[in-house]
Amino acid sequence: MKVLKVDHIGIAVGSIEEVKKLYTEVLGLEHLGSETVTEQKVTTAFFPVGDTEVELLESTAPDGPIAKFIEAKGQGVQHIAFRVDNIEKALEELKAKGIRLIDEKPRKGAGGAKIAFLHPKSTFGVLVELSER
Ligand code: ZN
Question: Which residue of 17, 27, 88, 124 has the lowest C-beta tally within 10 Å?
Answer without folding.
Answer: 124
